[in-house]
Amino acid sequence: MKIVILDGFTLNPGDLSWEALQAFGEVEIYDRTPPEQSVARAKDADIILVNKHIVDAALMDQLPKLKLICVTATGFNNVDINHATEKGIQVCNVKGYSTSSVAQHVFAFILSFQNRIQEHNKSVQQGDWAKSQDFSYTLSPIVEIERKTIGIYGFGRIGQRVAELAQAFNMKVIATHKHPLRDRRPGVQFVHLEELFETSDYISLHAPLNADNVGIINARLLDLMKPSAYLINTGRGPLINEVDLKEALEANKLAGAALDVLSKEPPPADHPLIGVKNCIITPHLAWASLESRQRLMNGTVENVKAFLNGKPRNEVNNI
Asked: Which of 139, 177, 240, 304 is deepest in the core (most CB within 10 A)?
């Protein structure tokens, strides 16, 4: 078997090992692959691993030996699933590996807003504490998150984990969800989307992206938020109308936003939210803790092993 990894850097920038894959055959690893080099690198591959690299019909048609596409992620919109099915190529993904990592990042955002660790450290480092007449000072009020309300849009695995952490902080948890009876949890109240935006002190987005919710977080919903409330998105960038969010932030209709995802990644230099006051942006790293990436690596190895044993797992197409 020949296994080719076309864009391995985000999964393994050097702190993990690809060694487990080498038990299955010859392995070629590329951190990134320009589209024009895809065929040359993968033409003899039986199995390819991709994270965000595009595997369309034109590429598959030029890879005569290809039997398995392993997506090193949960989302697989970078692969033409229908064409893979037509050609008898199995496609597998990995689910659930990043739940704890993403939920942790949500609270890193919340605590960053409320405790202002970096701002206070910068103040101390530039000598403000040494010059102070008092033993203690704050640059802005520090607000406890206990008894505050967190609203969760989308109550799947990650949303449920965020709820668990919120309850550990003694927060009130409300959520929107398509299956409230199936996924009900003690202490979690399900509400309509409008009520979620009206009453929450923190709103955290975790719904999968679909045709019905592209741009759903728009001026109408943002106008419902408390001026003291914060919007957090570690889900999918296109859930938010980014121009509407910029205008809402500049008009102080909400206290701040924290985003790990944007509608276009990497973003253009003139992205409307870069440089906006009270908008924290991180580069789609919520999923990428060391432990999370190791789980993703392990899951990918198991997908390859299962396929070679004739019992594929985590299939996203039926062949």
From this structure: 240
CATH number among 2.60.40.2470, 3.40.50.1110, 3.40.50.720, 3.40.190.150, domain 99-281:
3.40.50.720
Confidence category of residue 181, pLDDT binned at 50, 70, 90: confident
- Tell me which residues are annotated as active site: 236, 265, 284
**How is domain 2-97+290-308 classified at the architecture level of CATH?**
3-Layer(aba) Sandwich (3.40)
Note the pTM of the prediction, 2 decimals. Answer: 0.93
Beta strands of the chain (E only): which ranges?
2-5, 26-29, 47-50, 68-71, 90-92, 149-153, 172-176, 188-190, 202-205, 230-233, 256-259, 279-281
pLDDT digits (tens, 9 = 90+) for 241-268: 999 999 999 999 999 999 999 999 999 9
- 92 - beta bridge partners? 70, 315
Residue 302: is its pLDDT beyond 90? yes
Identical fold for domains 2-97+290-308 and 99-281, yes or no, is: yes
Q: What is the distance of C-alpha 236 from the center of its chain?
A: 7
C-alpha to C-alpha distance for 82 and 98, rounded to whole angstroms: 27
For the record, the structure tokens of 245 come out as 């969010």
- Distances in whole angstroms, Cα of residue 257 to Cα of each of 109, 112, 119, 213: 9, 11, 17, 19
